[in-house]
Amino acid sequence: MPEIQPVNMGSRSRTQMTLKTVRASDPAAVASSLKAVQLVEDSLAQRVAGPPPGALAEILPQILDNLQSMLRAKELGARQEEHAAFLTFIGLLQQLAPEDLEQAARNLTAPAQWTDRSRAERLAIVDALGHLGAPVVQRVLIENFLNEHVARADAVDIAQVLTSFVSFHVTKLAPLPELLAAVEHIIYDLNEHASPLGDLRVREQATLVLGALAKYIQPFAPDAAEQSVMRLRDTLGHARDRARRTDPVLEVASDGHVHSSEVILLEALGNAAHDAALDHIISYVNGTDVPPRLRYAAVHALRDYQHETAEDALLFAALADENPHVRQNAVDSYDLHLRPRGTFDEVLEKYGRYHFAQVL
Q: What is the DSSP letter of 7?
C-alpha cells in the first residue's frame, strides 16, 4: 500500500502514515481510510465472474497457497504480483457458498494459529476478509476482533480490520447493524484501559470508519445514518463552545505523538458528508479562535459537500485564511469535485479575488 506524507504545518512533530496502519490524528490523514482500497477498487469492479461456488475442502488449499504467494511477493517488493495475488485471494473466497465462506473465515482467523502467524500474514488476512464484506464474514470479524472479550488480536490487527471495512463503497454491500453497534461501542463505551480495543489508535480508527459507514448506509437507512452523524457531531461540539470545554482528551500525548480528538471527529464528519454536521464543520472553518490544525481539518471535511453553503465556506477559506496550508487545502478540497461555478481558478478569473472575498 502507498504511503502518505503529511503536510508540515509547523514545528509540531508529524509521522508518516501508511494506509495499512493509519495515523488518523494527523490532519493530512483526512479521508485516508476512504483511500485504503484504491489499489483494488478498479480491479474488483472489472473482475469477471469466477466459477460456480465450490466446496471448502477443494478451495481452501488454493486460498492458503495464494496467501503464501502474496506474502512472498510482498517480501520481494513485487507490488504488481502482490496486488494480483490479493485479487486472486479475494476471488477464491468469493467462490465459496456462504456457509463455506464463514468456515473459511473462521479457519483463517482461528485463535490457535492467530498469534503464530506473522504480522504481514495477519494483516493480509483481515484486509482481504474485510474487503470481501459478505455478511457472514462481517459477523466473524465482529466476533473475533471487535469483541472486547477476545484478547488474541492486538491494536494493529484491529485497526486494520476497521480500515478494511471502508471497502463497502466498492462491494456495494451493506454494513450490518451489529457492525455499527460494535464500532460505536469502541468509540463511546471503552477507554484506554480496555486493551486492545481501548487503544487510542483503535478508537481513532473506529471514529473515522464510523463516519464512512454512516455515508454508506444513508441511502437505505437514513435515520440510522443521521443518528450516528449527530452523535459524532455532538461529541465534537460547535467551535463557539471550545473555550468552555474541559474534556481532558482533546489533546493526548501518546508515544511522542499529539492526538487531537477534535481533528479525528472533524475528519469522521467529513467522511460522512452529512448535512446534519455541516454547520458545526463550517464553524471550525470560520472560527476566529480555532487553531490552524483544526481549520485545516475542517476545510478538508467539506470536500464531499456539494452545495453552495459548503462551497462558499471553502472559497472563503481559500481566499482569506491567514495560514497558507489551510488556504491550499481549501483550494484542493473545492477542486476535488466539479462545481457549478467552475474550478477555483475559474472563479477567481470570473469574479476577481478581492470582489469575490467581499461578496462572501
A: P
**Residue 347 host element (H or E):** helix 344-351
Determine the Cα–Cα distance for residues 201 and 208; give it in Å rounded to an integer.
11
How far is residue 356's CA from residue 349's CA, in Å, rounded to a whole number? 10
What pTM was computed for the model? 0.79
Is the model's pLDDT at 47 over the cut of 50? no
Please choose, from the candidates 359, 271, 272, the residue with its C-alpha nearest in 3D space to the C-alpha of residue 311: 359
Mean local confidence (pLDDT), 19-38: 39
Q: What is the mean pLDDT of the chain?
A: 80
Residue type, 62: Q
**Residue of 212, 214, 190 lying closest to 202 (CA atoms):** 190
User: If you search the block for the grid coordinates 464528519, which residue do you land on?
Assistant: 269
pLDDT digits (tens, 9 = 90+) for 330-352: 999 999 988 888 888 888 877 76
Contact (CB, 8 A) for 91 and 47: yes
User: Quick one: cell of 199?
Assistant: 487503544
CB 276 within 8 A of CB 233: yes
- Contact between 105 and 137 under an 8 Å Cβ cutoff? The reply is yes
DSSP secondary structure string, 287-303?
-TT--HHHHHHHHHHTT
CA angle 308/313/314 to nearest 5° reads: 95
Q: How far apart are CA 132 and CA 91, in angstroms?
A: 9
CA-CA-CA-CA dihedral for 319, 324, 326, 331, to nearest 10: 50
3-state DSSP helix/strand/coil % of the chain, to nearest 5 = 65, 5, 30
Q: How far apart are CA 326 and CA 306, in angstroms?
A: 19
Burial class (CB in 10 A: 0-12, 13-18, 19+), 118: exposed
pLDDT in tens, 200-210: 889 999 999 99
258 three-state secondary structure? strand
pLDDT digits (tens, 9 = 90+) for 226-285: 999 999 999 999 998 886 665 544 444 455 455 588 999 999 999 999 999 999 999 999
As a whole-number percent, the residues of the chain with pLDDT over 70 amount to: 75
